[in-house]
Design goal:
The complex is a heterodimer of chains A (269) and B (261). Chain A is α/β, with parallel strands linked by helices. Chain A folds into 2 domains: 180 residues, Rossmann fold, CATH 3.40.50.300; 68 residues, no CATH class. In chain A, 38% of the residues lie in helices and 24% in strands. In chain A, the strands form 2 sheets. Chain A has a 6-stranded mixed β-sheet with strand order 6-7-8-3-9-10, with helices on both faces. In chain A, strands 2-1-4-5 form a 4-stranded antiparallel β-sheet, covered by helices on one side. Chain B is mainly alpha-helical. Chain B is built from 13 helices and no strands. Classes of the chains: A alpha/beta (269), B mainly alpha (261). At the A-B interface, β6 and α3 of A face α8 and α9 of B.
């Protein structure tokens, strides 16, 4: 492994009884890269992200290698090291704020788990809340916040331990179009401030172009890496300008062409 | 009509209706039907007054409340513990499931005499009747609480590096508590019913026992006086548990749900 390689997937294969999900997945991600993963629905994007996070699906057969910052994440000992020493953040596509905790208590949870003193945890949570523009809402419960605010809170919670790796699985999927664009801009600004390696899963081509410094295109199931396209534009990016730019149009056409071959007819899954 | 004004009007109508019924009852008693059968409001008031200010009342009340709350606390603790074991240990669950369903299907008044036989006429047998009802409410709510946990919550917390014990502390227990406390009001009501059933079957004290004695003497007005006391007690307990429930589950979007309904 070269020194700046954060994630290496080699000949990765995963199947459930009667369903092959991933096949020959080979991928190297450098430290600090922002990878947008795009592919047809059900192609195994989330499964691949879960494997990188050490979340091995039950009843699955796995072959190949997966290392994250030198840690074998297909072994339970490696997964413990990944969580406790490397540090990862995960933002799911569903709302995972704990409904019985206030916003500030949700944010400090990862630090509580790591045994960070309460005062220090609260200070860090406050600074993160400012960063995502949620200061003033500390005592609010999740149901009192809008969808966009909840997603920003989840992002802040994932970042509070300054993880080396941040995995976001379609985090903006449930939001309206305008909120999505706003949050894409906000995330791009955050990425410019972070040093984390980011894996951002999406099914939205424009979102992938706005967020990724590299876009990985996956084939339909069983998913494999079909293409890898660099996006040279530096962060922070303005989602509105990205959508209007010439390079974005070219990329969009290229991605559409790559994906069109992967989209099956209605009823074929 | 404004909401506050509407409420005042409704309350006035309620009081008028209640007064009319009481007057009709008082007028009919011993005139058309014997007060031995239907009681008499003036007699009920007298009995209520003399009983409430007697030493017996405090003894009976404390006995019934002791059985109710011991049964409630033990039932909730036992039901939650058993529910957790049931959800975590699949083999255990599969082995005991038919027994749990069979025991729960038994009507509690039918097993109350056994508790009296085994545990005597004291507070313990009444506690056990209350326990036998509350236990199953807590047990089924615990199972539902655990089953309803969003698997993504567990994944997110695991990625934070949480151990099994931390997952239990931060996710599982709060999920269970929200379900158990959501049924707290029902549990308290049923615990009181359990204690009264226990007293009916065999006791030497308690509000239920006193009612049974008065009924044996054909003191219908006395029985009605006790019923009124039980109604006030049950209502107060339910209202207090509503307050506790609202404090413990203050994070729930209650107002929103009500406005949708």
């Amino acid at each position: 492994m070269s020194n700046n390689e954060a994630i290496i997937l080699e000949d990765l294969f995963l199947e459930y009884p009667g369903l092959r999900v991933l096949e020959n997945v080979n991928l190297k991600i450098r430290d600090g890269e922002v990878i947008a993963v795009i592919g047809p629905s059900g192609c195994g994007k989330t499964t691949m992200a879960h494997l990188i996070l050490g979340l091995v699906p039950p009843n699955s057969t796995i072959r190949g290698n997966a290392t994250v910052y030198g840690v074998d994440v297909l072994r339970s000992e490696g997964v413990k090291t990944l969580y406790r020493e490397v540090g990862v953040g995960y933002v799911s596509q569903v709302d995972t704020l704990l409904p019985w905790r206030t916003l500030i208590d949700n944010l400090v949870l990862p630090l509580q788990i790591k045994g960070v003193p309460k005062r220090e945890a609260l200070e860090r949570a406050q600074s993160l809340l400012k960063l995502v523009g949620l200061n003033g809402f500390e005592k609010f419960y999740p149901h009192q916040l809008s969808g966009g605010m909840r997603q920003r809170a989840q992002l802040a919670r994932a970042l509070i331990t300054s993880p080396k790796l941040l995995v976001m699985d379609e985090p903006f999927v449930a939001l309206d179009a305008l909120t999505r664009i706003k949050l894409q801009g906000h995330l791009s600004w955050l990425i410019s401030k972070l040093r984390s390696t980011v894996i951002f899963i999406t099914h939205d081509i424009e979102e992938a172009i706005t967020i990724g410094t590299r876009i990985i295109v996956m084939s339909r199931r069983p998913g494999t890496i079909k293409a890898s396209i660099a996006v040279e534009e530096p962060h922070p990016r303005d989602p509105f300008k990205v959508r209007a730019s010439g390079y974005s149009q070219d990329l969009k056409e290229k991605l559409l062409e790559l994906l069109s071959g992967e989209v099956t007819g209605y009823g074929e899954g | 009509m404004g909401r506050a004004r509407e409420l005042i009007v409704i309350n006035i109508y309620r009081i008028i209706l209640l007064m009319l019924l009481i007057l009709l009852w008082e007028y009919s008693s011993d005139r058309y039907v014997s007060s031995l059968i239907i009681g008499k409001p003036s007699l009920i008031a007298q009995k209520l007054y003399s009983y409430v200010f007697s030493r017996l009342f405090l003894e009976d009340l404390s006995f019934t409340l002791q059985a109710t709350f011991s049964g409630l606390i033990l039932g909730i603790l036992g039901g939650v513990a058993f529910g957790i074991a049931f959800s975590y240990f699949k083999l255990f669950a599969r082995v005991v499931e038919p027994f749990v369903i069979a025991i729960n299907s038994l009507p509690r008044p039918a097993i109350a005499p056994l508790f009296v036989t085994w545990l005597g006429f004291g507070v313990l047998s009444k506690t056990m009747v209350a326990f036998s009802i509350v236990f199953f409410i807590a047990f089924f709510n615990t199972i539902n609480g655990i089953a309803s946990i969003n698997p993504e919550l567990i994944k997110v917390v695991r990625v934070m590096g949480a151990s099994r014990i931390q997952i239990m502390r931060y996710i599982v227990i709060p999920s269970i508590l929200s379900w158990v406390f959501a049924a707290f009001k029902t549990s308290v009501g049923f615990a009181l019913i359990g204690a009264i059933i226990g007293e009916f079957v065999g006791s030497t004290r308690g509000l239920g026992y006193r009612m049974l004695i008065l009924s044996g003497y054909f003191d219908t007005s006395g029985v009605f006086a006790l019923l009124i006391l039980l109604m006030i007690l049950g209502y107060s307990i339910v209202k207090i548990s509503e307050k506790i429930e609202n404090i413990v589950l203050k994070w729930r979007p209650r107002a929103q749900i009500l406005s949708i309904l």
